[in-house]
Amino acid sequence: MMASDKIKNEEINAWFNCRRKELLKKKSGNSGQQMLMETQSLETPQKKFCLLESLKFAEHRMFHIRYSETEFPEYYLWTGLMDHITKQDNILAKCESFSMNRRIPKYKQFFLDLIANNWGPNAPTINDKPLQKEAVRWLFIDCFLCIEMTKTIPAIWHLPLIDQTSLLLNNIILTAVFNKTFYSCVNCPNAETLTLPNGFSPIFLGTFNVAIRVFCESIKCFKEINLSMEEFVLLRGMVLLQHASVDIAPASHQILQDEIENFTSILMDYEKIKFGNMMGAKRFAELMFFLIRATKFSIQHRNLVLLFMTTMAQQQKAHFTTFMESVVLGIICANDSVKTAETQK
């Protein structure tokens, strides 16, 4: 990755130093609880603190790109997975090119009317794309953004390319689903189902047991736990770094295990600072249980997408890019290279 495209850690260090000076200037008249939190914050190792801030910094940019009214460049979805992993530039460093105006989601009734009026020989469409494929498209936009986010986690840089690839193939779609479920809760507080930035939810196409679990129960699970931004970025990192079932070198396993322990330690410190030792430990335990549930929902989501893609391919109704196929199937597909929409015609 080029130095100019990396998340600017020097900015985070500068922010940390300014914050530290502010806390040191606080008068001793602060309330006991506030002083305790500030003192404990100062005792947090700077390295750990900077990791958390860099994760939040990257998340801010991801959220901006995802919800900007600027249409996401289709080129990225026609690029092979290996090109995404190895390319030196990072779209997070280019977020200023996306409009500051937020995308305005359409109401649920708009999509229900669209489906009711157009279902038949021609599938309902939005922006000239079938609604089913539009839902899949957003999943892969989230996958791409998660790949870009991984470039801000130092431990992943240290892995050999083959191990980086294996890790992402195993975890990236799970991380993307974790992302989009959290975003649905944050951006649509009253939503009862997973919702995309344009207001569409795949559940509108039909309700059945798996769909309800994937799109509705997962939202309920996230709302119950009510994650803070700090908790979200740390838990998402743990989802991405899980490696027990990944076929990688022993040294890579150790690097990832050390990083997971680092994330866990930061999360525990954060909860203790926020809630105190006893309640912080309780909250930490709740988050670990929640993480297991959220991962199960993500796996079910991937299986549902795989079923849809397989069905569409068998009916020859859609062609999916090698990037999409690699992410869902968990393998590097043949001819995984840059492909544009023009070359597919």
How would you briefly describe this protein structure?
InterPro entries: NHR-like_dom_sf, Nucl_hrmn_rcpt_lig-bd, Nuclear_hormone_rcpt_NR2. With 345 residues, this protein is an all-alpha fold.
Q: Structural class of the helix and strand makeup?
A: mainly alpha
First CA to last CA: what distance? 32 Å
Apparent shape:
globular
Overall residue-averaged pLDDT value: 77
Helix content: 55-70%
Number of strands: 2
Strand order of the largest sheet: 1-2
Counted by DSSP, the helix tally is: 14
InterPro entries: NHR-like_dom_sf (IPR035500), Nucl_hrmn_rcpt_lig-bd (IPR000536), Nuclear_hormone_rcpt_NR2 (IPR050274)
Keywords: Receptor, Transcription, Transcription regulation
Domain NR LBD: 87-329
Protein name: NR LBD domain-containing protein
Helices and strands, with pairings:
Layout: H1 9-24, H2 32-43, H3 46-67, H4 81-86, H5 108-118, E1 125-126, E2 129-130, H6 131-150, H7 154-157, H8 161-187, H9 209-225, H10 229-241, H11 250-275, H12 277-314, H13 322-329, H14 341-344
